[in-house]
Amino acid sequence: MDKIPIVELENLKVKLGRREILHGITCRLGVSGTGQAVGLLGPNGAGKSTLILTLLGFLRPSAGHARILGMDCRRNVREAHSRIGYMPENDSFVGEMTAVTFLRQMAELSGLPAKAALEKAHEVLFHVGLGESRYRELRTYSYGMKQMAKLAQAIVHGPELVVLDEPTNGLDPAARRRMLKLVVDMKTEQGMNVLVCSHLLADIEQVCDEAVILKDGAIVHHCNLEEERRSNKSFVELEVTGDDRNLRMALPEIGAEGVSEGGGRWRIVLPAGVGVEAIWGLTARQNLLVRKLTHRRDTLEEIFLKAMGHLLHTPGESAALDVGRT
Amino acid sequence: MVLPRYAWRRLYQERLVVVLTMAAFVWPLLCAGFIYLTNHLELLQGLDPEFRAFIQVDGRFFSIFMYVQAGFAGLIAALAGPGLVAPDLSNNALPLYFSRPLTRWTYALARLTVIGGMLSIVTWVPGLLLFGLQVALAGGRWFLANWTLGAGVVAGFLLWVLILSLVAMASSVYVKWRVVAGAVSLAFFFLLTGVTEMIEQVFRATWAHVLDPAWAVNRVWCTLLGVDPPAGPGAAACTVSLAAFILLLGLVIERKLRPVEVVR
């Protein structure tokens, strides 16, 4: 039996007025029921929020289909809504309500019986760290607390999929870490699927298993972050003093390849399992003095910049391609 | 029934709404006293016989009762109605509601049910109780001769409650700010009455009254209660005009009550 994707888009086009925002997107993202997280990345105006609003059934596609958890976003909207939770980007709450009443109401609206809704409201508020202030009116909350309350209302009914729109926006570093930890817990401990929309690459990299990069209403890159992590390629930018003419020939000793940029500067691709200490050993054997050594993994930032057209290719790829040409 | 339940709770947490609702019962109580007196003429022995013949429970009595009570209902609708909808819009809570198994129409209907229910408490419910009191005191023969009055009171008030609820909701979704929405609700009626008067004075045309929903409702009441109507367009024209108002208000709600505002 086919695995049901979290999100499935078929030539999806969405217009706002006469302006087409999404230009015929087709993709299958994630696998439902596996606790996977999918990230939607893109600069402002790329169409991320439009895509999320379409998936929630708030906007009508002008062509094509959008399915969430296998359900059509227009035809099965009620069923889809009962199985998802949504945390919007902007302030969204009923200020005159206490957090516990608000969550209880939202849980009941999602179909939980009144008593179970009350229990879940208390439980979830403690879970997100608002236990002590759960009887306070939401309008008295700080921004960070409101963000947590928004997350709480999205998960109070135990949905299969949680859609998070810029969940860490405006949070201080500690609150951001806490929010990301909660999101990771949601997928690892509770098996919820998560769809995260963010412009913060670090958030997506930390939380997601799969990422889609949107630009001008089209998908410009779709990558499996888990595979990227598993490939574990890393790159070293090295600057040495001394006679480095033999370094290129010596690199294969440790399974690495590299390219000289002149002036003692090298860009080296390390295979999986080879640490930066191998470079230290190699340079020592070559009697080279290391002036600078920068070691980094193939980050989402590079993928993102490449997808946006700011980089022609990733440094690792260029190093690999240029090996032997120098 | 989840939304109405929470809305009722929110509604009666407001002291002013409670006070105004209580105040709205003073007039029905006075009317109840009047009904009691008209059915116990021995208490009015010393009064002029002509006056005793004048005071009786008929269509005119119920139209006066409805006229005063409709004013209270208008005030309550303007005060409490926007409090149920405007905060949801000003706090951007609609995406949270509509991302759940709840349609826009279910939401609107739930809110209208509460506004309508709250207005019913001060309109047709006391009206029906007064009618019931008169029937209890005057007997079955009176009921057989005047049952249309009871039906007229209920139908007339339901029409007024519908108009008030829609105006309160439409103004709330339009301006999103509770206090202003309340003022707009009242201004809707005063402004249209003013415009109607102006047109009438300038063009010497009584047809302009169809543009005044309060007048049009009163005209329909006159027909329902069998009371002499004021000069102007007939009940049919007023009914059509009110239907157009209802359609227009429904359209405003449909256009503005959306989870996201699309900037085109």
Provide a brief overview of the structure.
The complex is a heterodimer of chains A (326) and B (264). Chain A has 326 residues and is of the alpha/beta class. Chain A has helices at 48-55, 77-82, 99-109, 114-127, 143-155, 173-188, 201-207, 225-231, 247-250, 277-285, 300-308, 315-322; strands at residues 7-16, 19-29, 37-41, 63-68, 71-72, 84-87, 161-165, 193-197, 210-215, 218-224, 234-241, 257-262, 265-270, 289-297.
Which CATH top level class of the largest domain in chain A fits?
Alpha Beta
Main sheet attributes: strand count, strand direction, barrel closure of chain A: 6 strands, mixed
Largest interface: A-B, 33 and 24 residues
Q: What count of domains describes the coordinates of chain B?
A: 1
Total beta strand runs of chain B: 0
CATH homologous superfamily (4th level) name of the largest domain in chain A: P-loop containing nucleotide triphosphate hydrolases
Strand content of chain B: under 5%
Structural class of chain A: alpha/beta
- Envelope shape of chain A: elongated
Query: What is the residue-mean pLDDT of chain A, rounded to a whole number?
Result: 85
- Poorly predicted ranges of chain B: none
Using the CA coordinates, give the radius of gyration of chain A.
24 Å
Describe the model:
The complex is a heterodimer of chains A (about 325) and B (about 260). Chain A is α/β, with parallel strands linked by helices and about 325 residues long. Chain A folds into 2 domains: about 220 residues, P-loop containing nucleotide triphosphate hydrolases (Rossmann fold), CATH 3.40.50.300; about 90 residues, Alpha-Beta Plaits (2-Layer Sandwich). Chain A has 12 helices and 14 strands. Chain A is elongated and about 75 Å long. The C terminus of chain A is likely disordered. Chain B has about 260 residues and is an all-alpha fold. In chain B, helix 5 packs across helix 10, helix 9 packs antiparallel against helix 11 and helix 11 crosses helix 12. The chains are: A alpha/beta (about 325), B mainly alpha (about 260). Chains A and B meet through helix 2, strand 6 and helix 3 of A and helix 1 and helix 6 of B.
